[in-house]
Amino acid sequence: MTKIVLLGAPIEAGTGRRGCVMGPDAYRTAGLVEELRALGHEVTDMGDAEPEDARDAKTEFTHLKELEVVAGWTRALHADAKRLGRGDALPIYLGGDHALSAGTVTGHAAAAAEQDRPFFVLWLDAHADFNTFATTTSGNLHGTPLAFACGLPGFDAYLNGPVPVPVNPENVCILGLRSVDGDERRLLQDSAVTAHDMRAIDELGIVPLLRAFLDRVRAAKGVLHVSLDVDFIEPDIAPAVGTTVPGGATFREAHHVMELLHDSGLVTSLDLVELNPFLDVKGRTARLMVDLTASLFGRRILDRATRSY
Fold first, then answer.
1. Does the annotation mark 142 as catalytic?
2. In the annotation, is 52 catalytic?
3. What DSSP line would sit under 191-246, residue for residue?
4. Catalytic residue, candidates 41, 78, 98, 255
5. Of 71, 87, 147, 161, which has the maximum CB count within 10 A?
6. Which is the catalytic residue, given 41, 78, 108, 142?
7. Which domain of life is it from (predicted)?
8. Domains, the chain, ordered by start
9. Catalytic annotation on 229?
10. How many alpha carbons lie under 13 Å from residue 181 in its C-beta half-sphere?
11. How far is residue 49's CA from residue 97's CA, in Å, rounded to a whole number?
12. Cβ–Cβ under 8 Å, residues 235 and 246
């Protein structure tokens, strides 16, 4: 039995389009609490977080969209994650767009540093989200959280100063890449981040790539934050995302990743991001994300009831 806390983060300011604000309630409606409790876990839903006032968030870059709103969410979620990271329950952050991870990842990194434990991040995503304010061409800030968390410069507006505890890029693994901007690619290649695109998964298989990373986390006695973006998955089976990129993880690949993560016993916090219920088909994507979360928390193949779609 695991103690789990849910915290909604209904942020859509990072995406440039409407709909992700409905994400947290879609997870609840799809039965996330009930599924986790059916697996024997103790689940507390803390409701939704509230952003801070960040009207002081300023930068020289005028093309950034909703900077003050994203900064307000970053500050609030950083504080929430740091507090929850000190506790004995495993937090699941219900998004909301991927900009929320600027707060959750940095907050958990700070909590891990207080405990003198190495902090690792598994980023399951079609995108690297490794842009800076200078390199993002769209100005949509959901493409920046991992660069911010890894301590790249220029992000002082988010927390009104540098990130307190940058994540060591050597402790980051991105799995499922298939869309990276040009300048972002150069930043990523210059970093020590492990980045596996879909070609690597096609050629080598998703299991050895993930196991190699988990072995590193285990050897370091580290804590592991997982950030799961809907667009990690093939959009034909997970359409409720505003940044669809064909060629994503299959249904079984996605579940296998979650099952391996459960078997590892290493996951200490989780983001579920970029669910846009406005784009869903009869709740199919929300239900799939709930099922994937259930796999992460111990549901086995033999436990799955037959379901007609």
1. yes
2. no
3. S--EEEEHHHHHHH-HHHHHHHHHHHHHHTT-EEEEEEEGGGB-TTT----SS--S
4. 98
5. 71
6. 142
7. Bacteria
8. 3-303 (3.40.800.10)
9. yes
10. 16
11. 14
12. yes
